[in-house]
Design goal:
By secondary structure, the protein is of the alpha+beta class. It is built from 5 helices and 17 strands. It has a 7-stranded antiparallel sheet with strand order 11-17-16-15-14-13-12.
Length: 360
């Protein structure tokens, strides 16, 4: 595997390289991942392969090429063809191909409607533990919306963001639209506020937290989503909002938001699901894949369309903040600045950075 010392980004992990549905449009995709130029292609037999996006002959981008049914991936410059195992199996005008002519393939897995790639030590690629089970929300029988947002910022800034629920009432005023969705991470700030609980778990290799806002207004978008299933809510109708978050480093997040009538015990909550999938393009750019779904929607498919619209708005609000941070810090690591202020509620950010540092 070529090691051109691209960056200090984690390599011994499975990254999402593409959404499966991207291959419905093109069967050859060029994408830079963790600093490395990669070509992904689906063979005529339906298998996805990944090489360095550079023909060993004259360094032409293989992603500009095409798939030939009985040969594999064809270079756009001189027509060299490559089988899925990286072997060069055809050179126009040349009867024999030297057996040593090959490009090294990267390990890939197609799972949960994503294409995963391993860029590090190939002998460790058999360990699939960094592909968490919560990614199952990306497949049937769940009704899913998915997409990819390019972000001109270090993926770690987005990890910081997603491990920090306190930003929601400020960054997401337009999308979520409620100051009631702040995580005080302690007792309610006054008796007039809804019951608010926050608990987090920082482990050696992952972080999770739960935020509960009981008997609350719940925020306009959440009230609307819930009312789309239950019927119009009156001003006196409060809801319970419970958010479960799990982070599998370096960049996989599961957000599950459960909505129910205030103090209900029937377990018939509306569940809004978000998967945030952060794949570093370079040290200052990120492929932000996402998936959203709705469970227990009572047959109201319009809830998912609405939730997808809100999600897209919120993702772009986070994108604007992260890109603004990146412009300010340039090519430096945010946490290299020792003058940064620190709040007591920044512990998950600090814990997350320590985990990522160990992975680098």
């Amino acid at each position: 595997m070529p090691d051109n010392n691209y960056s200090s980004l984690p390599l011994n992990t499975w990254y999402v390289a593409a959404n499966v549905e991207e291959f419905e449009v093109h069967n050859v995709i060029g994408r830079r991942i963790a600093g490395r130029p990669i070509v992904l292609w689906r063979s005529a037999e339906g298998n996805v392969h990944a090489f360095e996006d550079s023909c060993p002959h004259r360094k032409a981008p293989l992603s500009m090429g095409e798939v030939i049914a009985d040969k594999g991936l064809r270079c756009p410059y001189h027509g060299f063809t490559f089988a899925g195992d990286g072997r060069c199996n055809g050179v126009p005008g040349q009867e024999k191909v030297p057996t040593q002519w090959r490009t090294n393939p990267y390990p890939v897995i197609e799972r949960y409607n994503c294409i995963w790639i391993w860029l590090g030590d190939p002998s460790r690629a058999r360990d699939e533990s960094s592909i968490p089970a919560f990614m199952e929300f990306g497949i049937e029988p769940y009704n899913v919306r998915s997409g990819l947002i390019p972000v001109d910022a270090d993926y770690r800034l987005l990890v910081d963001n997603l491990l920090d629920p306190t930003h929601a009432e400020f960054v997401h005023r337009t999308s979520f639209g409620s100051s009631d969705l702040s995580a005080a991470q302690g007792p309610a700030r006054s008796e007039s506020r809804p019951q608010e609980e926050f608990e987090s778990t920082i482990e050696e290799d992952k972080i999770s937290f739960v935020y509960r806002l009981i008997n609350s207004r719940g925020g306009p978008c959440f009230r609307k989503a819930y009312s789309m299933r239950e019927g119009e809510l009156s001003d006196k109708d409060n809801i319970d909002y419970i958010m479960h978050v799990e982070w599998q480093p370096p960049g996989l997040f599961s957000y599950c938001i459960d909505l129910n009538s205030a103090d209900s015990t029937d377990g018939n909550h509306l569940r809004l699901v978000n998967l945030h999938i952060l794949t570093p393009e370079t040290e200052q750019k990120t492929h932000y894949f996402y998936r959203c779904s709705v469970l227990n929607d009572g047959g109201q498919d319009s809830i998912l369309d609405y939730w997808h619209e809100i999600d897209r708005m919120a993702f772009n609000e986070d994108k604007a903040i992260a890109e603004g941070q990146q412009r300010n810090i340039g090519d430096q690591d945010l946490f290299a600045d020792r003058s940064l202020w620190a709040r007591g509620s920044d512990q998950m950010n600090l814990g997350g950075r320590r985990i990522l540092q160990r992975m680098s």
